[in-house]
Amino acid sequence: MEIQMQQETEEKFLPVFGARATEFFSRFDSKLQPDELENLKTETISILKGCVNPKLDKIQNTTNLVVGYVQSGKTMSFTALSALASDNGFRVIIYFAGNKNNLLDQTEKRLRKDLINDVKNRDFYKIRKNPSCDDSNKICNELQISSSPTILIVVLKNYKYINQLAKIFDSQKIKNELKNNGVLIIDDEADQASLNGYAYKNSKSEDWEEDEYTATYKSIMNLRNSLPNHSYVQYTATPQGPLLISIVDLLSPKHHTVLTPGKSYTGGKTFFVDEPGLIIDIPDDEKFNSKRNNLSEPPESLITALQLHILSVAIIVKILRKEDFLSMMVHADREQDASQKFNNWVSDIIDGWITTLSSSENDVAYKTLIGQFEKNYEEAVREYKKHNETYPDFSEIRKHIPDIIKETNIELIISKSKRKSEDIPWNDYPSHILIGADMLNRGFTIEKLATTYMPRYSIGKSNADTIQQRCRFFGYKRKYLWSCRVFLPQDVQTEYREYVDHEEEMRKWLKENDSLEKVERLLLISPHLNATRKNILSKDIVTSKLTGWRKINAFQANSIEPNKKLVEKFVADNERKFTLYKNFNSPDRNHRYLKFKIEEAINFISEFIVQNMPDAARKQATLRYLKYLMTKQKTPLKFVYVIQMAYTGEPREREFNVETEKIDTELFSGHSPKGIEVYPGDREIKFEDSICIQIHNIKFKCENRKWAGKTAYTLAFYYPEDFATNYTGKLNESDL
């Protein structure tokens, strides 16, 4: 089945602050500084302004991108957006809340806290979690309530649940009730699972028609297709390289907003640029990998990290009393056995210290242990000294060390332990140590994390989103920043610094440019992003799918008229520039062409609407290929050929399959010896010195009344083989 999407609209509306938004922001007056609150309001309005007017009774949709830092408050942004959306007529808000149950529960809990506010706002919001078709009646009833509450639907980012939701909104009962009222979709962590993971994979198929598409991606398209009037807002903290390329796919955002973190936020720039003294080296021989360097005993750097954690608890919790507790994270390897090993080591070390500190202060072991803490005291207060901050003497700290060690809560966070962030008894202990693998990545909140120990052995270069997922040590830590320490191997530190440089550059581009097209072009030509640029179009994609002829064969009823207007305007604007290709003495075989500036060709292709996934993949890959060719340093491509087929003839009749909404017969007319001139066939109407775009005007032949006799324009692309050979040969040269 082809996925259909309604035509996007540029219709704007001006959101108004109503009772829900006013009540929401009033509760944060005392928690946020005035400029932080103002930033939140301004950015929330900016996001909603990019959405479609929910009260406009017409078929419309659009997509927004919202970019924040890791652990910087994206959830508050989308709960604020929800309150403002409720004021402005969105009857339904759908949240894709991650692909794990802990993320689902976390989002539901936050919505109840921020929006429903215990029971105070229950008349204005109704919440549903993972609804099935059996819940259709309840949703329908809630849409009929006289107070017009906004229905909040929290759903796992899993195709089964999203397809269930699509069925609910496809039901006639819900359609009759919702009509064209606006729906808002909020995709938290949009880079996770939502994007089409197979759109650019190195498939062996000749074209994208036979490629796979992720089930989650398909289900999202199904849901969007079931909602006549909706806005889709993607939240992400990872707009790096290939991710941004993937985002500019069928989900293509038309607007974007960059979130401003609060003043107390400490992210990558803080740790790796402004305050590099917070990073401590893990020696190469102490890096851990279950296959390459499976350590047999706890490394010295781990013991140092544990002692610094205890010292930081003494300073921040016991003496300065800035926080009620502090946490430490140990993330050694993705393998659960590795986490179990480090958990055993940490537990044994803590137990050993407890035993030692239970003996006499005159005991040699006691004095030796206290001596180790005293030695690490200089590191614990180094940043306080550097920034002229008050700090306690070791003599004051020393008396707290035994109790802190005895009150340290150790938690093993792996999948089989099934521990969630909310399961941790945070307030019961002054000191927590969490040890785990990928469960400590995205979505797991480590409260008041101060000390991070990550000895992971980096075999190859990490992806930006992988690095981002491990940034649990970013967050709002200004109150205890000088007690924060991050232990990392040197090569991992280098990756983080590159990540931060890239992140800051991307945020700068996003802030300075209204169009993601401009940002994508900067991404393509940036000299700093060579490593990621190779992933934009692989060798296999170029050599197998961007050579020879490729056609757009699928049609959607609501894209035919816009495409017709686009083509007719293009022809009218360039009427005098066309040249006859060759006179074959037949209106059906006479074609004309023009050389078109590559920048203008990119705009034309961008505006041509294609709405099934294979065609969208083909279109986006073509655009990226053209952008690569135009930005080559040595021989940039300056023009393409646009060929108007049978420009004086009648639209060519083609068999049309109403089920697949595709042309069933060959688009191209074939070779024919009949007539004054031998006709070589449409495939030979091309040039070899640039990419060619054929414009075909066709007439549908079928028995279906909706489609029979309808005319439409479609495109065919010709990619010269020499271009592919050149691309492959220069992949590692300076052009890339």
Structure at a glance:
This protein has 736 residues and is α/β, with parallel strands linked by helices. 39% of the residues lie in helices and 16% in strands.
What does this structure look like?
The chain is α/β, with parallel strands linked by helices and 736 residues long. The protein contains 24 helices and 23 strands. Strands 16, 17, 18, 19, 20, 21, 22 and 23 form an 8-stranded mixed beta sheet that branches. Strands 3-4-2-5-6-1-7 form a 7-stranded parallel beta sheet, with helices on both faces. It has a 6-stranded parallel beta sheet with strand order 9-15-13-10-12-11. Helix 22 (598-607) runs antiparallel to helix 23 (613-630). It is elongated. 44% of the residues are buried. Residues 1-10, 198-204, 527-536 and 731-736 have low confidence and may be disordered.
Structural class of the helices, strands and pairings? Answer: alpha/beta
* DSSP helical segment count: 24
Query: What integer value in Å does the Rg equal?
Result: 30 Å
Describe the largest sheet: 8 strands, mixed
Which spans of ≥5 residues are poorly predicted at pLDDT below 50? 1-10, 198-204, 527-536, 731-736
Features of this protein?
736 residues; alpha/beta; seven-stranded parallel β-sheet; 24 helices; disordered N terminus; disordered C terminus
